[in-house]
Design goal:
Elements: E1 13-17, H1 22-37, E2 41-46, H2 51-59, E3 62-65, H3 77-100, E4 104-107, H4 114-122, E5 127-131, H5 138-143, E6 149-152, E7 166-168, H6 176-179, H7 182-189, E8 196-199, H8 207-224, E9 227-231, H9 237-247, E10 257-260, H10 266-272, E11 275-278, H11 282-290, E12 294-297, H12 307-317, E13 321-323, H13 331-342, H14 345-357, H15 363-375
Helix pairs in contact: 1-15, 3-4, 7-10, 8-9, 8-13
């Protein structure tokens, strides 16, 4: 069911879908942005109750709502209810396809993308998928065989994908990661030209990382003259400040320290950093690599399919990161890992160079190129 075009150069129409978490949303939005820059027509399919709705509406893109949630883990009445919900979401996606006639559908995996991708398969619309993790998600594994192409962030994920047209593109990231220099980033942020540590746990923060970091910030700044950028997460900011006031009451006067709940411009923050303590979400890892940062990864232990641990293990095996389990994380173990990098310029440089060697800056261009190819 392919839309006829009078001229080959006519614009295409694409459905882009992905939601629930930043790892699914931001790559999808990056592709939507790029397609719109190319004057293609884009409709974003997502859950109106999720974060993707606010992000997409703020950009002014056409949003097509589907009500779908993650599959329940318990096999009880909830699974029946979920199956009915998914069926309605698929039917609604079929309606959208019949109404707007997309030339191709692009999905970033996860439960939010499933209805539109399944609808595309039913109606024989070409679709392309992108999976951001070292261990591909359930939706990707189930629907990859019918996809015209599958884009992957990690080469090891290819072993679990039943599709011969797999492309190792890395994750779609912002162009500034390629163009912004460390010198320019430090000037923009107004900080000194010295070793800088970034502590982050995502937009919501990571309590375990925050609690360990708070106890050692004073020592790192005063004894090692380390510059520290601390993103606490919006939900944890007040808790961190309360702890800092008790442990380090003069922290606000410390020029080595920047503490904020959230940074809108994480490109600049990461580009100024030499070392980072972070969770192991795939998008975060892609941005750490693109910034050439030596990272200490602490995977979230309850992530779906344990994908953060697999992501972190991949980075460790490549010699691009240090690895620390969540239940091993405390002030002493975190300090030990940070000091192992501060006290060895060779080790620090090795991790930074390995991370940089894994960076992929052209995922957006490569994915868009393939999407237009399968739509043609």
């Amino acid at each position: 069911m392919k839309k006829e075009k009078e001229q080959k150069e006519d614009n295409y129409t694409f459905f882009v879908t992905g939601g629930g978490t930043g790892g699914h949303i931001y790559p999808a939005v990056a592709i939507a942005d790029a397609l719109i820059e190319k004057s293609e027509k884009v409709f974003y399919v997502g859950n109106p109750k999720n974060l993707e709705f606010d992000i997409v509406k703020a950009k002014g893109y056409k949003f097509l709502p589907v009500n779908v949630h993650g599959m329940p883990r318990k096999k009880d009445f909830g699974i029946i209810k979920w199956c009915i919900e998914l069926s309605f979401a698929i039917m609604k996606s079929c309606f959208y396809i019949l109404k707007y006639k997309p030339d191709a559908v692009f999905g970033t995996g996860g439960y939010v993308s499933a209805p539109a991708l399944i609808a595309a398969k039913i109606l024989k619309i070409p679709y392309m998928m992108h999976d951001c993790d070292a261990k591909p998600g359930l939706v990707t594994r189930k629907l990859a065989s019918g996809a015209s192409a599958v884009s992957l962030a990690f080469d090891c994920a290819k072993n679990e994908i039943a599709n011969d047209n797999c492309l190792i593109n890395g994750n779609p990231i912002r162009k500034a990661f390629k163009t912004l220099s460390k010198t320019e980033a430090r000037k923009n942020l107004g900080i000194s030209d010295k070793t800088t540590l970034c502590i982050m746990g995502g937009s919501q923060g990571a309590r375990a990382i925050n609690d360990a970091a708070v106890e050692i910030i004073k020592k790192l700044s005063k004894e090692f003259d380390l510059q520290i950028i601390f993103q606490t997460g919006k939900k944890n900011f007040e808790r961190v400040i309360e702890q800092l006031i008790k442990i380090y009451p003069e922290y606000e006067c410390d020029k080595n320290l920047i503490v904020k709940p959230y940074f809108d411009d994480m490109v600049t923050v990461l580009k100024v950093s030499d070392i980072a303590v972070s969770r192991a979400g795939s998008l975060s890892i892609s941005e750490l690599c693109a910034s050439g940062i030596a990272s200490i990864l602490v995977p979230y232990p309850h992530a779906a399919a344990d994908h953060q641990r697999k992501n972190a293990k991949y980075m460790q095996e490549k010699g691009a990161s240090l690895y620390l389990e969540d239940d091993e994380l405390n002030a002493d173990t975190l300090l030990e890992n940070i000091l192992s990098l501060i006290n060895s310029s060779q080790k620090l440089s090795e991790l930074q160079n390995k991370a940089l060697s894994l960076a992929k800056y052209d995922a957006v261009d490569e994915i868009c190129k393939k999407l237009i190819e399968i739509a043609d």
